[in-house]
Every structure is written in structure tokens, then in C-alpha cells.
């Protein structure tokens, strides 16, 4: 797919656009699913510990939301860096696809 797009005159960024989007979606899916299930399907550990320790439930929920957001932002940033650096590594300065760079030498 990438080679076909390059042959049709697209830049390396345009050729990888769909693949990068799908990779980001796949990388973020576990965090998004965990956020959707937190509090409905299961009670997260930190929130449960705070409630059992006597903290008001509203405060425990606020802290748990903050923790989940920090984890999700970290996951998103990591996925973005991996996709960006990985995509750029596959091409040389003349925008040629270099699949030989996938194998450690």
C-alpha cells in the first residue's frame, strides 16, 4: 500500500496517513476501554483504597479520574512518539521506503 502511494506521487507523510491513524487508534484503545469501564464494571484500586480509608467518595473519584487521565495522556504521547519515529525511520532523506531498516543489523 505504501509503495503504491509513493509511486502515485504522494509524500511519505501522505502515504503513511491511514496507517499512522490506525496505529494511534490501536495504541489508545486499551486506555480508552479502561476509562470507560472504571467505576461501572470495576472499582479501580486507588479509588477503593481511598474509600476504605475513610475519604469521601467524591474526592476519591476526582483523584481516580486524574490518575486515569494521566495514564491515558502518557499512553497517547508514547504511541504518538512510536508512530512518528517509526514512520520517519522507514524513509531516507530522498523519501525512499527503506524496509531494510526494520531489521536490526
Q: Keywords for this structure?
A:
elongated; mainly alpha; 105 residues
Topology readout:
Blueprint: H1 2-7, H2 12-37, H3 45-52, H4 57-89
Helix pairs in contact: 2-4, 3-4
The sequence of SSEs as H and E is HHHH
Q: Provide mean pLDDT, rounded.
A: 91
Which regions contain 5 or more consecutive residues with pLDDT less than 50? none
User: What shape does the CA trace take?
Assistant: elongated
Content of β-strand? under 5%
Tally of structural domains: 1
Number of strands: 0
Q: Radius of gyration in whole Å, from Cα? A: 20 Å
Biggest sheet features? none
Q: Report how far the terminal alpha carbons are from each other.
A: 25 Å
Helix share, percent: 55-70%
- Tally of helical runs: 4
Structural class: mainly alpha
Transmembrane segments: 34-53, 65-86
Protein name: ABC transporter permease
Family: Belongs to the UPF0014 family.
Keywords: Membrane, Transmembrane, Transmembrane helix
